[in-house]
Amino acid sequence: FFFSSFKLPSIRTWLWIIYNGVFVNGISYVFWFKALKGGKTHLISNLLYLTPFVSLIYIALLLGEKIHPSSVIGLIIIVSGVGSQYLGNKNRT
Hints:
By secondary structure, this protein is mainly alpha-helical.
């Protein structure tokens, strides 16, 4: 704070900030809350844990990133955890 100057972001940066805030986060939260309100909460909330899986697929397909074996192992752990929780809840009801 004492050794640097304060600089406001450029217009282009503000546009990306607004885009991220409104579309990437804002609208997605509206859909998320509507899904939680209108569906089975235990099933829908577990879908949040599948986000790393979906993002890894997007990264591989759209950006051409290499998928490492450790990522696959992590995804298997995530999917098996979500699946076991879903099956556990299904057996309870």
